[in-house]
Inverse folding.
């Protein structure tokens, strides 16, 4: 049963610290997304990649967030320095576009910045 | 712009009663529409999708949705609610460049 995996599942850190979240997309998928979910804003797209190339990162605060795909099996989202307002659940999703419309979501990383 | 609007942020139903979640869309091109479910502390799981084939779409866990172009709607229904249906449900539209446009979500609670 192929799944998107994310690590860590939970992260508590102090303001100013660096946070790195990792995602392993479903093998063979060519598109990877990062979303953020908060009570106030709901689900927001932060960035996405196709064939490891960044296509759109307009949803990310550029000064502190960065997203990369070092290889086809790993996507990373970094926050440096972290701030309390970054507290949220961060989801990774993957898909195979244009062959299939569905995006498959990981379980999320729940981040709390104190 | 392509978008979806979910009517009602919270729905409460009795176990065994009909579940009806409303979603309207706005799109200048034929839309692809989805319903996702999110159980507490979990990711989003696909319930069903409409991709311009049959207008009545059946999904997992007994849910179905009907695409009505004349009403620009894609409402989700389940004839008989179960306690395990308590979750948040998102109506989602996929845009031309494969981005997802999410509704605000509807939280379903099921009363025993």
């Amino acid at each position: 049963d192929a799944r998107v995996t994310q690590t860590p599942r939970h992260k508590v850190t102090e303001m100013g610290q660096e946070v790195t979240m990792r995602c392993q997309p479903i093998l063979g998928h060519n598109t990877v997304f990062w979303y953020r979910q908060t009570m106030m804003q709901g689900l927001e797209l932060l960035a996405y990649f196709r064939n490891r190339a960044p296509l759109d990162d307009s949803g990310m605060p550029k000064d502190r967030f960065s997203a990369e795909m070092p290889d086809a099996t790993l996507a990373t989202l970094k926050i440096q320095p972290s701030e309390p307002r970054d507290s949220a659940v961060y989801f990774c999703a993957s898909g195979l576009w244009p062959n299939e419309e569905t995006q498959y979501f990981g379980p999320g990383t729940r981040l709390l910045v104190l | 712009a392509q978008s979806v609007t979910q009517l009602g942020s919270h729905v409460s139903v009795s176990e065994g009663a009909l579940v009806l979640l409303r979603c309207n869309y706005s799109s200048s091109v034929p839309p692809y529409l989805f319903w996702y479910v999110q159980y507490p502390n979990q990711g989003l799981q696909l319930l069903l999708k409409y991709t311009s084939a049959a207008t009545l779409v059946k999904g997992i866990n007994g849910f179905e949705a009907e695409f009505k172009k004349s009403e620009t709607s894609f409402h989700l229904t389940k004839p008989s609610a179960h306690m395990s249906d308590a979750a948040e449900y998102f109506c989602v539209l996929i845009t031309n460049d494969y981005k997802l446009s999410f509704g605000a979500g509807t939280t379903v609670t099921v009363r025993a």
User: Anything to note?
Assistant: The mean pLDDT of chain B is 94. The interface with chain A takes residues 32, 34, 36, 41-46, 49, 51, 90, 94, 97-100, 102, 104-105 of chain B (CB under 8 Å).
